[in-house]
């Protein structure tokens, strides 16, 4: 795993480590970093993709509370960030200092990465708000529909008025007399 720390890892290096029995979600070093952390920190999107495909936990945090998304943001790897976001990494995950990946990208001067993360976060928030509105609107629609059905049902069970009864009685009597 130390081969990945320098950021110059080859795909065969990781392959040898995993063939030797390294589990994808077990920390590979004393700092609690698993292969996905190391791939993201090295800006190795191909290796990170491979890790995700083999079942790596993309939100697993190391001793600093950092997940692969934090590592990718710290090194300015837009490719790794894109991959993590597309794989549904938690964008607002905070490290032990309370920093998100966007905060780290800004702190390390990776403006494009920070802007990307900010845009994704805003888009996710808009979608969430729309889903809540749609859900509330749907519930209100169902409530109105249920009320209307209930009203119709109660109208059909309403007692027949005296006028209606008299006309029905007269019709009944007339039909009896004709037989």
Automatic annotation (TrEMBL):
ANK repeats lie at residues 31-63, 64-96. Keywords: ANK repeat, Repeat. It comes from the Eukaryota. It holds the Pfam family Ank_2. InterPro entries: Ank_Repeat/CDKN_Inhibitor, Ankyrin_rpt, Ankyrin_rpt-contain_sf. The keyword Repeat applies. PANTHER family: ANK_REP_REGION DOMAIN-CONTAINING PROTEIN (PTHR24201), ANKYRIN REPEAT DOMAIN-CONTAINING PROTEIN 37 (PTHR24201:SF0). This is Ankyrin repeat domain-containing protein 37.
